[in-house]
Design a protein that fits this description.
Layout (H helix, E strand, L loop, with lengths): L10 H15 L1 H9 L12 E2 L6 H19 L9 E3 L3 H11 L4 H7 L1 H26 L9 E2 L3 H16 L3 E11 L4 E2 L2 H4 L3 E14 L7 E6 L10 E4 L4 E5 L3 E4 L8 E6 L24 E4 L11 E4 L5 H10 L29 H10 L3 E12 L9 E10 L2 H12 L2 E3 L3 H11 L3 E2 L1 E2 L9 E3 L6 E3 L3 H7 E3 L16 E3 L5 E2 L5 E2 L1 H6 L1 H4 L29 H7 L5 E4 L6 H13 L6 E5 L2 E3 L15 H7 L2 H10 L6 E3 L1 H28 L13 H22 L3 H28 L3 H18 L4 H11 L21 H24 L7 E7 L8 H8 L1 E6 L5 E7 L1 H8 L3 H9 L4 E2 L5 E3 L2 E3 L4 E7 L3 E5 L4 E5 L4 H22 L8 E6 L9 H8 L1 E7 L5 E4 L2
Parallel strand pairs: 1-2, 2-3, 7-10, 8-12, 16-26, 25-26, 27-28, 29-30, 38-39
Antiparallel strand pairs: 4-5, 4-15, 6-7, 6-14, 8-13, 9-10, 9-11, 15-17, 18-24, 19-20, 21-22, 22-23, 29-37, 31-35, 32-33, 33-34, 36-37, 38-40
The chain binds zinc ion (2 copies).
Length: about 1000
């Protein structure tokens, strides 16, 4: 007996059941054991930040990773299954700050950096556990006890080695420049952290007068949206080639920016260069000694503002560059927290936002304000805490990118990207990448191992913990792990003999993630160290080993990685940068990337908008298989709409598959059928077709998995389920009623194969069904059964039945368009364009309920051609009228390619509008190759037969509603008005399993079970 299936699948219950069963049976361990020593498939997991529970969007990548790992394992590959957690940097720090109610660096320092670091570690441990549970629930098979944690000392040491390598190549430098800065986080941000991190913000829009010295009453007018930068103004820039005009109120503007003004004078910008002016805040101590003057700048835009730009080199990137060219003083008005320094008078201690009002009032009071308004514009914000960014001058540690750029491009050329155009996106990023700003002025992050010496000027970069120990002069005894504050206590000896201390900066978190192809695989590690990866902050959280170099040789580079598209400028980039630096090679051979998750209405998901869906919530409500199905079906290069509506639709579609399995189980059990290896008799044509169709499914799906293309997998599965249910099973129903074992055998084989190939996508459902369908000698889990081998296929047979199905589909469409139910038989069907389907006229007749099938040109079609006026009007001129009449009268000849010949003109396909319609009395549908037409006229016989079909349908529904078994016989009583149907009594009896049919004084048909 096969275990019976419920009417509907309870996805949540069956997933719980299978999850527990995998655990108790140790299925995953058995799979790993089975594949040990097999060909390697190296997958490198991009670390997930252990800072929050997963959102629904995380399930996308996790699903894809699991799908392809399962597929490769089913093919017999050995895999590593190491999961990774990202553990340090701003994400985690900001999370802990919120937890503790801290909101500035000062508060963190008051709280204590050691305690803060402990809280960061606790937070990581907590969320790593939650994420692990969620991933298991999603069905993800990973080596959960051996995860890598990027805050491990080993990971940090590997980054140190990379940084030392950069130093040896002279790529490391301390950049002094204007950078985007988050005043809340108190640190600069790098280029890759800025992209897409913008908000629509409202800022003041001020037109301000700068009175010119020695030109009585004349002023420059500048425009600014950042009034806080005015106190740091040192120059005003004009476009040397643009024309400037002096208005009647003695204001200088670019003429183009103030075209309606009446002007009393015009000059080129270059004539204004060198003029001196009074800056609005030159009385402040910080401004002492600054001579404010007009400078030339080719990039002054004439698209906005006044054509005169106020320059504050301490508060803008381009301004800073100009300060170098023109030797301008650089005034840095704000500190790390974005507050004004002491020498800014009244502004001291206030934030850039706080001073907007007072500055505007002051300008107004002194008659310097021409106009004040506000502007809504796209403005950069901190990607971690959403605080608007400002510019300030900082000394950041940078890695020069120029030398590595071409080698990285070369490495990228070896990578196979899916979808392939992302390869170009990566190239674009690499071509435009700036030097890598690797320093953050924060606490819980990779400690940069930089020890600059004040005595001799040498920068020592420490490359390992051993080296640190060797050179340390102090502080080793308290060094519990390579983090602040402990690492800051360790001083080292410079070559010159001086004692030097580490810089206080920590590193960009993308260094942490980028090094994992080296740190987790044991690059240049002389020996295998048990738990050698689980060091420092990671000790106790994981058992991960540090493998030896031979292991790295085996597993590097990764065969495949998969993350979302934004990782092009993040993990794919940092990994590639570090890998090309250390080995000259790309760290991955193939990449699958995917876009963003939106809510079901297409809006971005945000917790604050109330439309974000947590992974936990999605898993509890939708179930893992359906979520995985949704992600796999979606084309990854498009944003995906995710929600409960789309999920319900998938469940509905899955029901067809479920019903097919249930159909088999029900009939197999009625007949006590036991499937063997060989068919229990000769296959009929339809069986042979399903046999071939199943082979085709295996080949198609395998091909799509090989391409890392899940939408192709789902398309192949969908169309197979349709063929299985709506063709094979439906066309074979009668054989199942008659306990035809060959049909059962064929169906069983098709179901088993389909369960196997869809297993990677829906592992729970697959194993649930496998457990019910498998034969006794088969492995208990579908994941222990080797992948089915593709065999040569009978393509002709597949094409033949494909064509039959297409004809039937078109016939149904024609019926639908004409409002003719399928239960109403029709007289005649004509098919034009059919090839091998002609051998199947009986099946076609039966499927479309027609009496006769003819393969011939369809005379039922009427072709109407109209001129495409916008094109033909100009072309034909006054001849258009005659052409139009000829077309209307049908006096034209159709040409190959869709054009027509009319009145001596040849008109192209785009110049005419061709309509194909059925003539009166016909229903018609066509595609490119086939035209299918049916007569619609009904006679009494056809009407009566139509009523019989309705009756059969109705009675079978009544049987189902009455809870009758498939084999129960009934007695059927009809109202007297249906007496004429008794002409078809035998037919009716057979279809509804009735022992007799009679009429009586009932008003509706009645059934009674025969005991
Ligand atoms: Zn921030
Ligand atoms: Zn020194």
């Amino acid at each position: 007996m096969f275990e019976a299936l419920a009417q509907y699948p309870d996805h949540l219950a069956l997933e719980g059941e299978i999850l527990a069963w995998w655990e108790t049976e140790g299925i995953f361990d058995r799979l790993r054991e089975q594949n040990r020593g097999g060909p390697r498939f190296s997958f490198m997991d991009g670390p997930i930040t252990a800072n929050n529970p997963m959102g629904a969007h995380h399930c996308w990548g996790r699903t894809l990773k699991d799908v392809f790992q399962r597929y490769k394992a089913l093919q017999g590959h050995e895999l590593r299954y190491q999961n990774g957690f990202d553990c340090q940097g701003l994400w985690v720090e900001v999370g802990v700050e919120r937890e503790l109610g801290l909101n500035s660096k000062r508060e963190i320092e008051e709280y204590g950096i050691a305690e803060f670091a402990e809280r960061c570690k606790q937070r990581v441990a907590k969320y790593a556990e939650i994420i692990t549970d969620q991933c298991r629930r999603l069905g993800m098979w990973m080596d959960w006890d051996n995860d890598y944690y990027t805050f491990s000392d080993t990971n940090i040491e590997y980054i140190w080695r990379f940084l030392r390598e950069c130093h040896e190549r002279d790529w490391l430098y301390r950049g002094h420049r204007a950078v985007e800065w988050c005043p809340r986080c108190g640190t600069s941000l790098s280029q890759h952290e800025l992209i897409n991190s913008y908000a629509e913000l409202t800022h003041p829009s001020l037109y301000v007068r700068f009175p010119l010295k020695g030109r009585a009453g004349e002023s420059l007018v500048v425009w600014t949206t950042t009034p806080w930068t005015l106190p740091a103004n040192v120059a005003a820039a004009v476009n040397p080639d643009a024309e400037y005009g002096l208005t009647k109120s003695l204001e200088w503007w670019a003429v183009e920016r103030n075209p309606d003004a009446e002007l009393t004078g015009r000059v080129r910008g270059r004539e204004l260069v060198g003029l001196e002016y009074e800056a609005p805040f030159e009385h402040l101590p910080a401004q002492e000694g600054v001579v404010h003057r007009v400078i030339p700048w080719d990039d002054v835009s004439l698209d906005e503002g006044t054509g005169i730009v106020h320059i504050a080199p301490g508060a803008g990137a381009e301004d800073f560059e100009l300060s170098r060219v023109h030797d301008l003083p650089v005034l840095t008005p704000i500190d790390e927290a974005g507050r004004f320094y002491k020498d800014y008078g009244e502004l001291e201690g206030r934030s850039t936002e706080d001073v907007e009002g007072p500055i505007t009032v002051e300008l107004e009071r002194r008659g310097l304000l021409v106009e004040a308004g506000s502007i809504v514009h796209r403005y950069p914000i901190c990607w971690r805490c959403s605080t608007p960014l400002v510019f300030r001058i900082a000394d950041d540690w940078m890695i020069r990118a120029d030398e590595i750029r071409q080698p990285m491009l070369d490495a990228n050329a070896t990578v196979e990207w899916t979808p392939d155009f992302y390869s170009k996106r990566m190239d674009d990023w690499l071509r435009n990448m700036d030097d890598w700003n690797i320093s953050r002025r924060r606490y819980f992050g990779l400690p940069l191992p930089f020890y600059p010496c004040n005595s001799c000027g040498k920068l020592t970069v420490i490359g390992s913990l051993a080296e640190l120990r060797e050179r340390a002069t102090d502080g080793l005894e308290q060094l519990q792990e390579l983090h602040r504050p402990w690492i800051d206590e360790v001083a080292i000896r410079c070559d010159c003999g001086a004692e030097v201390r580490r810089v206080t900066e920590v590193g960009d978190a993308w260094l942490d993630a980028g090094i994992v192809p080296f740190s987790t695989l044991g690059w240049q590690s002389p020996e295998w160290k048990e738990h050698g990866y689980a060091t420092g902050a990671a000790a106790g959280l994981t058992g991960a080993d540090l493998p030896d170099h031979a292991y790295w040789e085996k597993w590097y580079p990764a065969d495949w990685v998969s993350e979302m598209r934004e990782q092009i400028r993040l993990w794919f980039y940092s990994q590639c940068f570090m890998s090309v630096t250390l080995t000259g090679k790309s760290p991955y051979r193939a990449v699958l990337t995917y876009e963003k998750l939106l809510d079901e209405h297409g809006r971005e998901m945000h917790r604050s908008w109330g439309n974000a869906i947590d992974a936990a919530e999605a898993l509890e409500n939708i179930g893992a298989d359906v979520i995985r199905f949704m992600f796999c079906e979606h084309v990854p290069s498009q944003n995906m709409k995710f929600g409960y509506g789309p999920a319900a639709e998938i469940r509905r579609r899955l029901l067809t598959y479920w019903n097919s399995v249930k159909f088999f189980v029900d009939y197999a059990n009625v007949d006590g059928f036991r499937p063997g290896d060989e068919a229990p008799g000769e296959l009929q044509p339809l069986d042979r077709w399903l046999f071939e169709r199943t082979e085709q499914l295996v080949a198609e799906i395998s091909g799509q998995y090989e391409r890392y293309w899940t939408p192709g997998v789902m398309r192949a599965f969908d169309s197979f389920v349709d063929d299985l249910s709506n063709w094979y099973i439906r066309r074979s129903r009668r054989r199942f009623w008659n306990s035809d074992e060959v049909a059962l055998w064929t169906l069983h084989r098709a179901l088993l194969r389909s369960v196997q190939v869809i297993g990677p996508v829906m592992p729970f459902l697959a194993d649930f069904l496998w457990l019910r369908l498998r034969t006794e000698d088969a492995p208990v889990s579908v994941f222990l059964e080797p992948w089915p081998e593709a065999r040569p296929r009978h393509e002709e047979l597949l094409r033949e039945v494909g064509e039959v199905r297409r004809i039937v589909e078109l016939g149904r469409q024609a019926r639908g368009d004409a409002g003719l139910k399928l239960r109403q038989p029709l007289r005649r069907l004509v098919v034009q364009g059919a090839g091998p389907a002609q051998r199947h006229s009986d099946e076609i007749a039966e499927e479309l309920r027609v009496k006769e099938v003819e393969f011939a040109p369809v005379e039922a079609m009427e072709v109407r051609v109209k001129p495409n006026l916008p094109l033909l009007g100009p072309k034909l001129g006054k001849e258009l009228g005659a052409v139009r009449s000829a077309l209307e009268a049908g006096e034209f000849e159709q040409l190959e390619g869709g054009g027509v010949r009319v009145n001596g003109h040849e008109l192209g396909a785009d110049e005419v509008l061709v309509e194909r319609r059925a003539r009166e009395g016909w229903a018609l549908a066509a595609d490119d190759a086939l035209t299918v037409a049916m007569t619609t006229e009904l006679d009494d016989d056809l009407r009566r037969e139509g009523r019989v079909y309705e009756l059969i349908h109705r009675v079978n529904t009544m049987r189902k509603d009455a809870g009758l078994e498939l084999t129960d016989r009934i007695r059927l009583t009809l109202p007297a008005s249906d007496a004429d149907l008794l002409e078809h009594a035998d037919w009716i009896k057979e279809e509804v399993l009735a022992t007799d049919v009679a009429t009586d004084g009932v008003s509706e048909p009645e059934i009674a079970k025969v005991s």
